Amino acid sequence: MENYQWSPNTAHYFPGDCSYGCRMPTTRQLLNSAQVARFVAHGFLRLDGIVPREMNEEALGVFAAGLPSVPYGTPVPKAFPDGSFARRLVELPAVAGALESLVGPDPTVDHHFVHTREPREGSAQPLHADAVIDLRSDAFDVQLMYYPQEVTAEMGGTLIVPGSHLRRTNESDTGRYQNLRGQTRLTCPAGTVVLLHHGIWHGGRRNDSDTVRHMYKIRFNPTVPQVRLWDTADLDAPAVREELGHGFPWYEQATGRLEILNRVRWWRALTSDPTFDIEYWATRITNRPTAQRSEA
Ligand SMILES: O=C(O)CCC(=O)C(=O)O
User: What is the pLDDT tens value at each position of the chain, 296 positions in all?
Assistant: First the structure.
């Protein structure tokens, strides 16, 4: 893994200053280290009801009219022209700040899509990840899910398996799993945005209500090293380790240790700190005296 140097220039946006590229404007509501550690452990971050009511009402018309197609890898300003619904959505300060903290400034849009669950549709979507097996250790994509309506349990919210994102699977290989302990079904107020690691196991639950349910998803690809992009003032706070050590009901003891190790490796990459560890798990298995001697 490369040892990236953190530069404030890659992490900060100054309104009106395009010398580092014209980034998504933000009033700098960056996440803190504990929130990013929570994302690392859970694989997602919820921003409940942060989209204003007028935009939620507008969204349904925008979805009905159909979204313009976006070629893979298009920079945000080109994918979503100024004033467009999607541009205003990603520029909401809480959304822009969280996205910048995770995927960095100037991400590209991989693709976007409105997922619709019809009333009383009769079946649920199999559990899956939106990825082929993805072995990257120094980059990850962020998926934004936006719910313009209140989602009730009857409407069959999006099923998410917290802490599953680092268990690298191939798309719907997990489809035969019907239920896992600790899975959550997203019920939320209108205007909720969820940001997810691309590897999270999820699926649309069956809509048993009389109301059509929409979820707008945008996948973002990073264009900068994802290193210390958030507000790191609390990097050494105890809350960071607490979040990184969080267990989930579907982990058995040994599985839980494996996931802690996966998180330690990722946190080392995110912070450019090759010494970070929890309970000596990573240090023990990266101790290679023979290799170090032959390099000297
Ligand atoms: O409809 C949903 O709630 C989730 C759908 C989804 O994320 C997908 O099809 O990948």
Answer: 223 332 333 322 333 333 333 444 445 899 999 999 999 999 999 999 999 999 999 999 999 999 999 999 999 999 999 999 999 999 999 999 999 999 999 999 999 999 999 999 999 999 999 989 998 999 999 999 999 999 999 999 999 999 999 999 999 999 999 899 999 999 999 999 999 999 999 999 999 999 999 999 999 999 999 999 999 999 999 999 999 999 999 998 778 899 999 999 999 999 999 999 999 999 999 899 998 887 77
Burial class (CB in 10 A: 0-12, 13-18, 19+), 20: middle
Nearest-10 crossing angle of helices 93-102, 33-42: 70
Where are the chain's structural domains? 10-221
Q: How many CA atoms lie within 13 A of 35 on its CB side?
A: 21
Q: Give the homologous superfamily in CATH for domain 10-221.
A: q2cbj1_9rhob like domain (2.60.120.620)
Residue 172 phi/psi, 5-degree rounding, is -100, 25
3-state secondary structure (DSSP) of residue 92: coil
Instruction: Give the residue whose CA is nearest to atom 7 of ligand 1.
Output: 203
- The three-state secondary structure class of 44 is strand
Is the shortest distance between the CB of 215 and ligand 1 below 6 Å? yes
Regarding the beta carbon of 107 and ligand 1, being less than 6 Å apart is answered: no
213 within ligand 1 shell (Cβ under 6 A) = no
| 3-state SS assignment for residue 13 | coil
User: Any idea what DSSP says for residue 245?
Assistant: T
Give the pTM.
0.89
- Listed in sequence order, the residues at least 6 apart from 17 whose beta carbon sits closer than 8 Å to its beta carbon are none
Encoded amino acid at 57, one letter: E
